[in-house]
Structure formats: structure tokens, C-alpha cells
């Protein structure tokens, strides 16, 4: 019995040892060390280019084929840029209404606001003070500030060229000019036109009628008719509609348009037009806003050489020799040779105001308030 108990005890002990080995961790093979994983730096989120928002304020309808129409063609060119966004308000009277419209654009966060009429100058300056972070460009004015610059083009160059055509085409030696307001911009254009007229025809005179409005087709047409009744056989204009062109055609006279090619309104009368191409200037300004190089308190006055002003194609009635002589003068301007206001130049009283050997500088041109010899009318 004792022997059996002893054998049983040995068996139990062996079983216990087997269980102990079975419960222990089995030895593991050593694995090759893997390289430590490194977290890849997240690529910075690509920043979307900022959309530059531009607002345009117009004094007349964009469909007038005139001044606002030309500006709006420039705006449309800007709108084609994939980083630009534009908006406009048309037919905004100068004065309190324009101030309200300009302020509303500034409140909406436009990056740059273009105010395109001379009478918007003071409202632009006033609103700019209230919104120092916005940028403003005023067309044809002279006041500036830290966030207001002004711009215009040397349209007088195109006026001079159209005057060469008109002076060659008149038979009565009386040419009419329907003009809006007696401000330097308009006076300068009349003078340049008259200098061109008298270079082609020293006996001719240019008669001016003031309408005191930028856009009033009925009034513009009546003013043209009064000049036609006075014996003028070529009608030019500084107005926003083609009404003066239509009056000339109805009377069997010739006409010279402004702002855009107005030949479609008076194909039998239209000799040519002094035209604007605002696109290069507007795109340049927008690019400066985008890259941070835009500056306030500056003035831009671009020329035919810069592609901002030019003349429309000649009408079929213009002789080849006239076209050739005008194109020769145009080529000089395109090359940067501008001697339009080089002396000697006399005023209406026959007094020499620009002596021979000198020329009017930009300050004198921008402040011009007198008529050259050959203009019939008063500066008021």
C-alpha cells in the first residue's frame, strides 16, 4: 500500500512539472528590426489666389456707344481675367448720387473703385477718407490722396488727327463742335482739334456750342442742328451719344465721332472718330492691386503710343492723300513724338501764348482754360 502511495505521489509530481512547462511562454525567434517610421510633413494647403473685386461708376448708359460704353469695354476685358470680378452702376449723376453709389461699393468691400467722370472727383475724395483700406481711381480729375490716384489718356492726340481729316474735308471753312462742359479736358480737346483743322486748312474756323451736359441725345442733336444752320459742314463732338452724328448725316454734312467708332450711326457722314481703348490701363491697375505695387497719390496719363487712344477707320469718302498725310502724323505720335502743342501758338486774341521753340508742359495742358486762334466761342 505504501509503495502504491509512493508511486502515486511521483506521478502527481511529474504531472505537475509537465503542466508547469506547458503554461510557460514558448521561446520566440528574434525578428530583424524595422526602420523607425517617420511621419511625413503634411504639405501646406494651397492657398487660393485672391479674387480682386473692382467696381465701376458710369455717368451715362453703357449702351450709349459713347464714353461709358468705351469704359465698359475696358471693364469687360478685366472681367476676362480669371482672378478678377467686376461690377458697375450706370447713369449715375455727378454730385450726391455719385457719392452714395461710391460709398455703397466701398461698404461692399471692393478692392478698387473706378469713378469715371470728372464730376465724381470730390465725392471720390470724400468717400476715400472714410475707407482708407480701399483703393480708388478717378478718371480725368486732378485731386489725389493716399488711397486715391487719377488717370486719363492723351485723347487730345486723337483729336488732333481727326482735326487734320476734318480740315481737309470742309468746303465752307466752318466746322461745328458740340461740347459738354468748359473744363480743361474738353477745352484741350477742342484746341487740339482746331490745331489739326488749321494745319490742314489755315482759313477754317471751329465754332463751339456748349450743352452743359455729358449725355442728353435730344439736346446734343439740337446743338448740332444749330451749328449746321450756321453753315458748318463738319460736326465734331465731346458728348456721349451719337446724336450729333445723326444730325450731320440728316443734313448731308460730315461728322467726327468720339469715344468709339460711330460710323454705324452715320455711315454717309462719318469721317473718323477719336476713340478710347481703356483695357490696357485697367488691366495694368488691376495687376498692381493684385501684386501689391499699386500706389495712391499718383497720376497716369497714357498716350497713343501706349494704345489707350487712337482714331477709328476712315470713312469711304476720305481721299487717299488725306489718309496718307494723317497716317504719317499718327506714326509720329505712335513713336512718342508729340509736338501738337509746340509753339508758336496764338490764343483767340492773336496773342502768342506758346512761343516758338517751347511747348506746353503737362501741367499747362491739364489746366488749360483758353482757346487757340481759330476757335469761335467762349470758355464759359
TrEMBL record:
Protein name, entry field: BMP family ABC transporter substrate-binding protein
Keyword Signal listed: yes
Any Pfam family hit: Bmp
Keyword Phosphoprotein: no
Source species: Pseudodesulfovibrio portus
InterPro entries from the UniProt entry: ABC-Purine-Binding (IPR052910), PnrA-like (IPR003760)
Keywords tagged on the record: Signal
Endpoints of the signal sequence: 1-22
Domain ABC transporter substrate-binding protein PnrA-like: 53-330
PROSITE patterns, per the entry: PROKAR_LIPOPROTEIN (PS51257)
